[in-house]
Write a structure and sequence with these properties.
It contains 15 helices and 13 strands. It is of the alpha/beta class.
């Protein structure tokens, strides 16, 4: 068998694009290597395999041990749990002597625990420094950071530099990696499933995205379903012509997200709007294939320079919709502009009026809709899973042959 490779993701219950990337990566690398998937809790593997269409039979899933009393006490003294959790995980994983460690956990502070490492970056989180106020806080911070430095062999707050390379999922993310971290990154687009071939198109506008309640104004990433619902409610002419808006996606595990999803259902009362919460893969594929138009709104309402993380970092669902011939009408920000060429294989919009007007243009011009659908199918070929796995194999081969370490 090949090398020993570990993949790390603490957010597997989110069931989003980052988790899809993690599992496709694990599935593919397990064909030629020994692969461990490190997570924060036991996983329901059959459910993950069904939802994401992957085979994890060759992957060793290892939930990491919870933080012990000593580190919990340090975390309480310091007043920040994240760095101590990362330290705890570092100590567990480093004992395995992995050849390559791949960190695909968003906003992770984990120092690379192997001789070679890849930081898979959805979007670069700010590298936090400790805010110190008063002598007592200075002493507590200095003591805990010194312990971290001695145990991990790295400077606190700069864990990203411990990795051999950073891989960004889009040019958009790569640009922000350069801005925030001062590092060059390789760009490898995420693996996207082919949901085609297109079926006979119905008068369906589709949106796919997680239903998650907003946590804060700074760093929380959500999908803008409320904006899309309000836009569709204004389009009475399409309602009369038989058009429907369909929402699908997983619902966040917290109560606020469940309430958010239920609020959308209540607000849609009396309109031709359908919801498919936590839909099975087969149902998702059917919706993609029958949908004529695909809507995407992530980032709308937030200035891209002030709130860059709230923009779409890439847009797997847009690619999947295009593969099934649904014409994308997407908010013109972030990674979406790397997928859709405005006026060629879809449309960009900058405000709700633009979304409505572009959608009406497609709905009222069957020839244009059919031609853009054909072009969308062709465009998405460059984001196929085979392209992703080929680039990953190349990167893994280069790292193994270089023999250079993280430290």
């Amino acid at each position: 068998m090949g090398s020993n490779i570990g993949i790390y993701n603490l957010h597997m219950r989110a069931m989003g694009g980052g988790e899809k990337l993690t599992l496709v990566l694990a599935e593919h690398l397990s064909l030629a290597h020994n692969v461990w998937l490190f997570c924060s809790e036991p996983l329901d593997l059959p459910s993950l395999e069904r939802f994401f269409g992957v085979d994890l039979s060759r992957v060793t899933v290892r939930p990491l041990n919870k933080v012990g009393l000593f580190l919990r006490a340090l975390a309480k003294v310091q007043g920040r749990r994240g760095p101590l959790l990362s330290l705890h995980h570092f100590r567990q994983v480093s004992k395995l002597n992995l050849d390559i460690f791949i960190n695909n956990s968003y906003a992770s502070g984990l120092v690379c625990p192997a001789t070679r490492g890849i930081f898979m970056c959805m979007f670069p989180h700010p590298i936090q420094r400790v805010s110190i106020e008063g002598l007592a806080q200075r002493i507590r911070t200095a003591v805990v950071d010194l312990i971290e430095q001695q145990l991990t062999g790295s400077s606190p707050g700069n864990n990203v530099d411990s990795y051999s390379m950073v891989i960004a999922i889009s040019r958009y993310s790569a640009d922000w990696v350069r801005r925030r971290w001062g590092r060059r990154s390789e760009i490898i687009y995420p693996p996207c499933d082919d949901m085609g071939p297109p079926a006979a198109k119905a008068r369906i506008i589709l949106n796919v995205g997680r239903f998650i309640a907003a946590k804060d104004e700074e760093e929380w990433h959500h999908k803008g379903q409320q904006n899309l619902l309000e836009a569709f409610k204004r389009m009475s002419d399409l309602h009369k012509d038989g058009w429907e808006l369909h929402f699908t996606g997983s619902v966040g595990i917290d109560n606020n997200s469940a309430e958010f999803a239920q609020t959308l259902v209540q607000d849609s009362g009396g309109f031709p709007v359908r919801f498919h919460f936590n839909a099975a893969r087969e149902e998702m594929s059917d919706l993609y294939r029958r949908a004529a138009i695909y809507w995407h709104a992530t980032g709308y309402g937030f200035d891209a320079d002030t709130y860059p993380v709230k923009q779409e970092h890439f847009g797997i669902t847009t690619v999947e919709a295009m593969s099934a011939g649904a014409v994308p009408v997407v908010y013109s920000s972030g990674g979406q502009k790397e997928i859709v060429t405005d006026g060629v294989d879809g449309f960009w919009w900058a405000d709700i009026d633009g979304l409505i007007n572009q959608t009406r243009t497609l709905a009222n011009d069957q020839a244009l809709l059919c031609e853009m659908s054909r072009r969308a199918v062709l465009t998405c070929k460059r984001f196929e899973k085979a392209s992703f796995t080929a680039r990953i194999d190349q990167v893994i081969g280069e790292l193994l042959s270089e023999g250079t370490g993280c430290y």
